[in-house]
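Single Protein Entry

Contents — chain, fold
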Amino acid sequence: MLPVAIFASCWTVSCTALLVDETEQNWPQFRGPAGNGVAIHANPPTEWTPESAKWSVEIPGKGSASPVVWGDKIILLTAIETERKAPEAEEEEPAEPEEGRRSRFGRRRPKPTQIHEFLVLCVDRKTGKTLWQTKVNEAVPHESGHSTNTQSSGSPITDGKHIWASFNSFGLFCLDMDGQVKWERQLGTMSTRNGFGEGATPALYGDTLVVNWDHEGQSFIEAMDAKTGKTKWKKDRDERTTWSTPLIVKFGDKVQIVTNGTNRVRSYDLANGDLIWECGGQAGNPIPTPMVIDDMVICMTGFRGNAAMGIPLDSQGDITDTDKITWARRDIGPYVPTGVLYKGQIYSTKGSSSVMTAVDAKTGETIIDEVRLEGMRELYASMVAANDHIFITGRNGNTLVLKHGDEMEVIAANELGEPVDATPAIVGDEIIIRSDKHLFCFENNP
């Protein structure tokens, strides 16, 4: 799951402007061009049914990785459980994590015994036809994963020339747009909290790829050359498992990497990995991605408590519990999904429930107080926005379309008929939704 602010700063103004425009016309990463869930120039449909799809196609295997789009190519990640079993490993297996607690979100599955194939897929945006698929690895997963997680939950990234696909413990891969693997890295074996499984997405800025590797072992953050996979720098972190995609944003004369975490939200200098600032106060199991507005970053969490705060990007050192924090609240904050920041307003759930609040991004003040989203119980997909509409998709596949504003106004309620955990992609006149089994493309036909 992931942001990338804009791309390289070393090009000429005209080249940079051209690249920004091209990026905004696509959906190159988790949560869109700027990582805030917004498609600036798009005009997607607000109403649809499964029968009204421009096309739909069955996707092999399982995955909640969100689709990304560049031009007429849609990129997906998936993991296929085969009937093959691997021979008994000679080396010692990783220690089994503690038993997951029973909750309304379920428990861990039994530990896998079958080989899984990890695939990168490319689908034609015009027809839904599979253009190519590349198997980048196969292995027996060492953790079962949460009952609502999959073995392919991190989303791909593309710049239109290359694709970066992370399967976490099963490898980080760079492919060209024709599906040929250019390089791969094996970064280790994750041991996630309660064996809930993996799912964080790397982040890209110019020619630098950033991986945040938080787990129950030694956590770290690493920056590498996006073209070669070679390490630029690596820093240890004192964090437990997180599933949050880093935010990379240029502010002043530095590019900052902002990472959400249980112990601290931290900002690192992209150039060398030096810590710029840090701030405590979040809740546990961080999953939501940070969002940025002007000179401030907003971080939110919602596991066993809620937290939301606005932190100035010009901060220095440890600002925990200081007046440097612009605003902070303990009554809002999502668990799994990330909210959407649209025209200065943050729409977000409380936990993963179907209770939504909208706040002013700069002040944290309530604009729309707690309202229930009818037709859904819980959300994993992050919210997205385009053309003054907010799109909110529940785990049951229902999508509510709201009119952007200071009041709750439902424009449409759309039933897909299949579970959805992946975040939709919005490009041009289309919204692309990955369900449990299919990929759907819905088009706005004026």
Summary: The two ends are 32 Å apart (CA to CA). The longest strand covers residues 73-85.
